[in-house]
Amino acid sequence: MARHSLITDPNIHEPKDISTAAVKTVYKANGAGTGLWEPLRHMVGGRLGTGGPSTSEGMWFQMAIPIRSKLSDIRFNRKVSDSTATATITVSRNGTTIATGTINNTVGPGGGGTNNTVTISIPADTIFEVNDEFKIHITYASLTINASFGCYFQEV
Description:
The chain is an all-beta fold. It has strands at about 25-30, 35-40, 40-50, 60-65, 70-80, 85-95, 95-105, 115-120, 125-130, 135-140, 145-155.
């Protein structure tokens, strides 16, 4: 009998339990010769930044959804370099607001801004259809802002 540790490609068989794996799941190896079946997720992330005069229009990230999917939450990190301010975050689907949140900035010792992180939860029943418009809009009242975000779409 061949030792599995000695089998090389192309003779390696499919991952364990593939016959019972749920549809739209992927095998995630843990590096120790085993792993788990997990839902297929697609990461979307970016950085929004500006300098100069404040604007009521703020910044936004917008995309058309390529797959039918759910989005559980969005994690934001924001730093304002020189002022005490609040950023308002609006998440929408096809122009309709589905979630909102705020990130507060405080001026730290020596006048530097602080990093603040917030997670915005999306309602569990929110489904994005193919070509739906997904938009994150951040409005603020500060001179300099850097906001990064990350979120995962889970195919349904």
